[in-house]
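In response to the reviewer comment on reproducibility (Comment 2.3), we provide here a single inverse folding case reported in full, input and output, so that an independent group could reproduce the run without further information from us. The structure tokens appear first.
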């Protein structure tokens, strides 16, 4: 209705417009390009240093967007397990058989079985060191024992999972996209539009060009950072010296002729060629977190000094030409808690509890998701979390805004006890001077429809300044 009235407003004088009509949408707004931007839902930008751990960072980044998962997972545990035991993992899962030479870096697909069998832990268990890959002296013995074995079998991997691999995903909840599927821009857009907050993707890159991306908002990576281009004509084919055009020049020529450069390249009417020494080319994994009219918005793992505070746009033509594979995660899997009834109450009382705050996009504005996670190597078998949300006004007075009880899910399908505040309520929190949540952790839920009747064992209080929340945050 609003769109129709906006169109009529261009034709009718104001006196003839319906007097009770809703506010008119300006004509310029009717044709605005679609923008999906999930940066506010992301964990902080990490820095992998000069190591080939980009796939581990991109997958952990995607996993960190789910409720009940901390915003700082341990990339080191995952990467070291892959590197030390990838021969066995390949033999078990991919059934390739023969030995593989260990090398720096891994493809996204090689991590999927490790997340299924092991998972990863919180960064505090094994802090990432960008300078080396060996286990430091403070790494828990449970982890060291497995990583120092020369070979490892599936039972030993399960032991490592039980010792530290708390967060991961089931293979059934992960889909590895091949090159054709990855280059389907409409499909990736629909995933991002419908609630997927991050998609790990691998690109062919020219390392120095990516490293030298200008540090500013709005910077875009285009195909000219990888190759040069020329039209295939009898003259250019016969020429002894190949003259390559920039991407901008080639794109302009094709556009003037009503043609698409990528299609021309695929059908052989145009050619592309390397602009730099071959050793400077390689693969790199990043996390797609949105899109606009110019391309996909990506989160890199090269620190906040790169591009736009660690983010950048990859042009659609670059994605169509050089993306190689992607990983779609539908759900996170939290490992089963310790189920011993003799330990549950003590684990709840003594646990290292955290509250995760995560701005969440919605059709009506930005919501705010709250979820729970434990830093302990094994979770307590809590069944419900009761949240009470208070806000502080400018005069220093506190008032209760809302209260809610969330179930933690069965042992094999933990949820993080998610509570999502509506955009209206989230807006009230954002305007507060301070906010706090009192979380009570309970067991013995007899009726799922009456979670507040549980036996509550312990409680914690988390307080924060709303204006300081720039993205997903752990308290």
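Designed residues, in position order:
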């Amino acid at each position: 209705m609003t769109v129709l009235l906006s169109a009529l407003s261009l034709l009718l004088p104001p006196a003839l417009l319906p007097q009770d009509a809703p506010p008119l949408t300006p004509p310029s707004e009717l044709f605005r390009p679609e923008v999906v931007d999930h940066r506010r839902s992301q964990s902080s930008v990490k820095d992998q240093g000069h190591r080939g751990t980009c796939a581990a960072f991109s997958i952990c980044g995607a996993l960190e967007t789910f409720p009940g998962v901390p915003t700082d997972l341990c990339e080191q545990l995952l990467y070291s397990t892959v590197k030390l035991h990838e021969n066995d993992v390949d033999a078990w899962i991919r059934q390739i058989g023969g030995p593989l030479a260990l090398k720096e870096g891994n493809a996204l697909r090689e991590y999927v079985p490790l997340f299924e069998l092991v998972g990863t832990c919180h960064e505090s268990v094994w802090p990432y060191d960008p300078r080396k890959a060996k286990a430091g002296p403070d790494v828990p013995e449970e982890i060291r024992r497995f990583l120092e074995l020369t070979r490892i079998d599936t039972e030993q991997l399960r032991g490592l999972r039980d010792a530290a691999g708390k967060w991961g995903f089931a293979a059934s909840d992960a889909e590895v996209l091949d090159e054709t599927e990855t280059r389907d821009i409409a499909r990736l857009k629909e995933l991002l539009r419908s609630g997927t907050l991050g998609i790990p993707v691998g690109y062919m890159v020219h390392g120095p060009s990516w490293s030298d991306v200008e540090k500013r908002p709005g910077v875009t990576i285009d195909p000219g950072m990888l190759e040069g281009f020329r039209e295939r004509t009898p003259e250019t084919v016969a020429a002894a010296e190949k003259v390559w055009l920039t991407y901008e020049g080639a794109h302009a020529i094709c556009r003037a002729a009503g043609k698409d450069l990528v299609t021309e390249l695929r059908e052989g009417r145009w050619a592309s060629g390397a602009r730099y020494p071959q050793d400077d080319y390689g693969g790199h994994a990043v996390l797609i977190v949105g899109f606009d009219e110019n391309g996909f918005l990506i989160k890199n793992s090269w620190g906040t000094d790169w591009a736009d505070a660690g983010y950048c746009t990859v042009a659609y033509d670059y994605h169509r030409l050089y993306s190689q594979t992607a990983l779609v995660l539908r759900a996170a899997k939290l490992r089963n808690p310790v189920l011993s009834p003799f330990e549950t109450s003590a684990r709840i009382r003594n646990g290292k509890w955290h509250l995760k705050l995560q701005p969440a996009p919605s059709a009506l504005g930005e919501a705010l998701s709250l979820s729970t996670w434990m830093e302990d190597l094994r979770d307590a078998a809590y069944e419900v979390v009761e949240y009470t949300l208070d806000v502080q006004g400018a005069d220093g007075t506190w008032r209760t805004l809302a209260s809610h009880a969330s179930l933690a899910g069965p042992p094999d399908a933990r949820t993080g006890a998610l509570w999502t505040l509506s955009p209206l309520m989230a807006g009230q929190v954002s305007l507060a001077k301070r906010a706090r949540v009192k979380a009570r952790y309970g067991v013995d839920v007899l009726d799922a429809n009456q979670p507040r009747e549980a036996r509550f064992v312990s409680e914690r209080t988390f307080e924060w300044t709303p204006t300081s929340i720039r993205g997903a945050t752990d308290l």
